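Changelog-adjacent note: as of this version, every example in the card shows the full chain rather than a window. The one below runs 189 residues end to end.
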Amino acid sequence: MDHTAPAPRTDTRSRAQKVALELFAEQGYEKTSLREIAERLGVTKAALYYHFKSKEDIVHSFTDDYFAEIDALLDWAREQPRGDQTRHAILDRYVGIVLAGSEVFRFLEQNRASVQGMEAGKERFARFRDRLDTLVHLLAGPEAPLRDRVRATTAILAVGATCMFYLQQVDDLDKLRAIVLEIATDLIA
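Full-length structure tokens:
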């Protein structure tokens, strides 16, 4: 009798996102079809359609997943005691989220015109702005002077820009993460 565990169920939605991102990088967003995504994924177009009705839905899912991760970070951070250790932990978790989403950020940047043309693309920055304000509040403090709020904002924005800029230039992501975290922490100290 075979006692091996069954193969874990795959997450079609996340696999579809990954395949779509690969095809968008290879061919461009505009030239990639749902049919091609389904074929590379090895599913029917109907199976893909169950998760995503359009390419635009896939792009929205990238942003929605990112915001869900940020929201989880914010929920966690609100429950923590204020102090240097918490600020460091918030930044560490944020750097991890940004590094994990770097391929998506690159896609969004390379396809800015297509993304901005999408209805939800127009509100993407507004959705990020609310979360940025909350992160600043958690890092700088509720009644922080303008200088401290600007430092916290600079730290957060620097994390994203720096990770995106250096990701393709370094072999050691842990080293990049440590450097980015160190500098961001220095900014809010």
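Structural remarks: Residues 17 and 134 are 28 Å apart (CA to CA).
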